[in-house]
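REQUEST ID: PR-0412
SUBMITTED BY: lab tech R.K.
PRIORITY: routine
TASK: structure prediction, single protein chain
INPUT:
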Amino acid sequence: MLPDPTVLAPLLAPYGGSTDLDRHRRAHYAAMAVKSHLDHGEHDWSAYNDAYVRCVGVVDELVPLAAGLLGACRVPDLWRWPIPESVAGLRLLHERGVPLGVVSNASGQIAATLSRAGICQAGDGPGVAVRCVVDSHLVGVAKPDPAIFLHVADAFAGIDNSRIVYVGDSVTIDIAAATAAGLQPVLLDPYDDHVDAPFARIREVAELLTLALPRR
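STATUS: complete
OUTPUT:
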């Protein structure tokens, strides 16, 4: 899920930002790439905010104002816009019998957000059934701390960490945590912002079914 562009687009339009939703979608990944390049962790989103508003076309002199507004308004409950390809890919993986789970840096809301959108839930329900939904706020540890993955141990009992693939869109948060935990890290990189990366990348979730990963 992404910060809801249907809210952010009109919010930034008075500063010159585009209202095109695809451009906002692109802006998220461009901003995540900048954040990772600068090695900013979970609690520093200043570079993300600046890169995001620039990417949607906010004029230079208004970037500080627009970035500040974005930072103030991009609250956890706004991180709710489903990525269509990811939703479809999740269902495809489920249909192929792949064990699934969610591990998210969140604020206590992620399970309800995913369920309300009909994407997934732990156990049976309207969305894809996953084995667990781990919310960093509820378990008291957040990526890039690999200890967050200790909270999936029961759900994936009997499966060695080296056989578990973890997909995320942040190098400094997701890839770092998965690597430290001994999982197979895969970056969701739909716009090829990390072409020289030393780890696996996919453009959409369904590619996991054909992705060749190194044996350990």
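NOTES: Residues 21-37 form the longest helix (17 residues).
REVIEWED BY: pending
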